[in-house]
Give the backbone structure.
Amino acid sequence: MKAAVITFPGSNCDRDLAEAFAKAGAEVTRVWHKETELPKGTDIVGIPGGFSFGDYLRCGAIAARSPVGQAVAAHAKKGGYVLGICNGFQVLTEMGLLPGVLMRNAGLKFVCRTVGLTVATRESAYTAGWQTGSVIRVPVAHHDGNYTADAATLQRLKAEDRIAFTYVDNPNGAMADIAGILSDNRRVLGMMPHPERVVDAAQGGTDGSVLFRSVVGALAEA
Amino acid sequence: MPAPLKARVHVMLKDGVLDPQGEAVRHALGTLGFTGVEAVRQGKVIELDLAATDKASAEAEVKAMCEKLLANTVIEKYSVEIA
């Protein structure tokens, strides 16, 4: 099972994300943003957190249109898996692979702390390792995590069971307490919290390892 | 030979999209004693120097730039001035 983790100028969670995939048993390749193709046989692409291109113009906007961005979009369009975390989630909305936008936090401040998340659906390769309704603890660290979408989009996300995670105690004003959402084929997940920061007891928690084991396991069987 | 053109793009949040930064500015103005400011909306101005010399095609091209990159049309609207 092959994972490709993208690095943009300003990414800073790329190594942690690669480690998390590797720890779950994936064969991981690191991919620089100027590449125009993903490694052959890539099953899942990881888009890490950080501040790609300095958050210039809008968070994730430049990364979404970079050479590798086009390759990631093509991978997703043919049914490939993509996991975008924090800035990676912003990149996925800017690419149009996930609906809505991540706006400035309602409190205007950067929020950096461990929060409670409810697993809103276990119906995905990412969340199948939990029960729907499980509460887990995962860190957030962002300035622009305030998920915003029009009423029709929110209604569709709910009706199609595409809200993957919600905040127990909303830290950023996100609509419907949304922390992470799935694409319509349930293979693209964008989330603001950082599961790759809780995959080893030395990091202070292991709740995130469930996500990586679950998706790596599902793709290894496939 | 006609002079090269300049484009000025204004990007603003669409009406009805909450602008927490604009709201913070409004609040700060009130603190400074500027009463009577009922709303503040914050946006961006982007200036482009263009090689093009034909106004109509330049405007069409800048609009395409707005749709593809300069604005996120999910939440933002834009206007283009060519001079």
